[in-house]
Amino acid sequence: MKRIIFLIACIIFMTSPAQTNSPRVNIDLGNMTIAQLLKVVYDDTLGNDYVLEPEVLEDQRRISVRVFDFRRKENLLTLLSSLGYHLETRSGVDYISSVKKTDDFDFYVYRPKYKTVTDLKTALSGLFSGTFSGDNNRLIFKGSAVEIAKLKKLLEQYDKRQREIVIRGKIYEVTTKKTDASSLSIIADIFKNAGLALSNGAKLVNYLSFTDKHVNAYWSALSSDDRFKLISEPSLRVRSNTTATLTVGNDVPTLGSITYQDGQPVQSVTYRSSGIIFEITPEILDNVVNLSVRQEMSNFNETTSGVNNSPTLVKREIRTNITANNAELIVLGGLVEDKDTKSAAGLSFLPGWLGAKSDSKDKTEIILSLHVEILPES
After folding, report:
1. Vertex 69, ends 63 and 73: CA angle to 5°?
2. Are the C-beta atoms of residues 44 and 14 closer than 8 Å to each other?
3. What are the beta bridge partners of residue 173?
4. How many angstroms from the chain centroid is the CA of residue 17?
5. Which phi and psi (to 5°) does residue 270 adopt?
6. For 35-49, how does the pLDDT look when each residue is reduced to its tens digit (9 = 90+)?
7. How far apart are CA 276 and CA 171, in angstroms?
8. What's the Cα-to-Cα distance from 378 to each of 10, 117, 161, 358, 360, rounded to whole Å?
9. d(CA 117, CA 98)
10. SS3 assignment, position 368
11. CA-to-CA distance for 136 and 188, rounded, in angstroms?
């Protein structure tokens, strides 16, 4: 129907006298894609051969045209130009394609504030059609003005200082009798007697949790009990998703592998750390911190088995992954060692049964307490 109306309009234009005061006929062609409109114009009005490039056929924009006399090709050229297309005639055939803009991009150079150029490129490259490059100090982006504006806005939100936490720890060695309760039960009783409560009543087999601003009061309560021996007080400031290690001890030479040079065996020597080794990796989320914790207490003794002339590493180690709230004190236990001690006293010339004998059964446990504090964002 629209095609018929269009043909009628063309006939009216062709038969109307060319006077400035002649009546003007208004014809509407609405809600058509650009490709549909061009096919009507060429098939029913212009009549010459034409080619519509793929970008024209894929353009889904819908337009409405009112009183365009396309017998005058300049009217068609004006319409195509306003839509971002141009017409080129080659060997009598009209080729209609999009305007190729060779300068429709710009460059933006950015100096990172807190993150590395590599981190920024990795995070942002999949979000923009433009390209990223640069060196160790500057990020270079090539893209449209619209994308550059979006990139600037995103960088303001993304390129911020990584969050950090301060970890304060105390490592205790607890000596108790085998008949005594577990060390964590003893700690809970000590805190209760000192008027310090468990947060939310959290009390598990090898885990205690406290939320209190006066964290030193908890540690003071433990220091007042002679069963608790303070071994180490690590304190670290750690950035999110990085690993911090604190080592207090010695690097001890141990025998390694044997290689042969000119037919002669050569014994290698490997240095291994021993002592108190504290390693922690935090992942700071919005309100909590995921902690990967490793605590080792070790020493080398003269070997009684294994490789001769190489000392034996004796260690006690805690490896765990926990989630902590801000300003929370966490107490971890579970590394228990039993000790049976037998002793005899008496005169050497008397029979053994006349002397005094003692048999003590003790146990020692390593307790790791950590206080987690998220530093405010700057």
Report:
1. 95
2. no
3. 229, 366
4. 75
5. -115, 130
6. 888 888 888 777 788
7. 10
8. 71, 21, 7, 62, 56
9. 36
10. strand
11. 52
The pair of structure tokens assigned to 197 is: 């409560």
| Helix boundaries (H) for the chain | 2-15, 34-41, 54-58, 73-82, 117-124, 145-158, 183-193, 215-223
Residue with tokens 């446990």: 365
Could you read off the pLDDT of 160-178 as tens digits, one per residue? Answer: 988 999 999 888 888 877 6
Q: What is d(CA 280, CA 171) in angstroms, rounded to the nearest whole number?
A: 14
CA distance 175 to 227: 6
pLDDT digits (tens, 9 = 90+) for 280-329: 999 999 889 999 988 887 777 666 655 556 677 777 788 889 898 888 88
What is the pLDDT, as a whole number, of residue 11? 40
- DSSP conformation letters of 209-229: EEE-S-HHHHHHHHHTSTTEE
What is the overall mean pLDDT for the chain? 77
Length of the chain (residues): 378
Answer whether residue 115 shows pLDDT above 80.
yes
Q: Is the pTM of this model over 0.70?
A: no
Question: What are the residues facing 316 on neighbouring strands?
Answer: 297
Q: How far is CA 76 from CA 26, 165, 195, 353, in A?
A: 17, 67, 89, 123
Q: Which segment of 94-103, 113-122, 232-241 scores lowest on mean pLDDT?
A: 94-103
- The phi, psi pair for 65, rounded to 5°, reads -120, 135
DSSP single-letter state for residue 54: H
Check if the beta carbon of residue 218 is closer than 8 Å to that of residue 167. no
CB 85 within 8 A of CB 56: yes
List, as one string, the DSSP characters of 92-143. TEEEEEE---TT--EEEEE--SSS-HHHHHHHHGGG-SSEEEE-SS-EEEEE
What single-letter amino acid sits at 337? E
Q: How far is CA 265 from the centre of its chain?
A: 48
pLDDT at 251 over 60: yes
pLDDT computed for residue 308 by the predictor: 59
Q: Residue 374, Cβ neighbours under 10 Å: how many?
A: 21
